[in-house]
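Fig. S4 source data, part A: sequence.
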Amino acid sequence: MKKLFAGMLLFSLAASGTAAAAPSLNGPTGLINTPSADVVQNEDFSLGYNHLKQGEVLNFNIGIMKNVEMGISSFDPEAGSRQNRLNAKWNVIPETVVTPGLAVGVEDISDRGQRSAYIVGSKALPLGVRVHYGLGDGRYDGVFGGIEKTINPLGVLTGDNAFPATTLIAEYDGDDFNVGARLSLVSGVKIDAGWQDMKDFYVGFSITK
């Protein structure tokens, strides 16, 4: 019985991580407006598009070496006013079954909008729950954090997509509370939707390969 319980626990932790990994609205791998300790793996990439109340944003991240992700976030609030922002994140301590992962990063390195440095930890818990907590300057203005709950993680591992694995997300980004959902349609392809500041709707998709 103990072995069975341990196996189910590991199964749920692995599934929750698989369902959640995707670019945030600001570029780095993460939740809605906040990063996680995850990074795109070496030589893999992620590509995301989101439509926000403020405009459209394209995000591209690539693993340039083990545990290091570089990315570009292209934000277009109005026609002809596109801003391209460079981001970087280093997963200093990979997450394990018993210990959290830890990453440090910088958004908008060239300070086109608002350069923001941060440190963030992430930890998967039983039953498809994962928590994130961090500290940053710039747009984070102190403490930020979030929680995820994955529904039907079994479908991610078995390939049964009758009900897509769905991750419900709630976060505080240092200024606003945001909520959303991330649907894993097939391996590496996700659809995101939710509300920034509990009122401004966003929708988008991402591909991680």
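Fig. S4 source data, part B ends here. The chain has one domain: 2-208.
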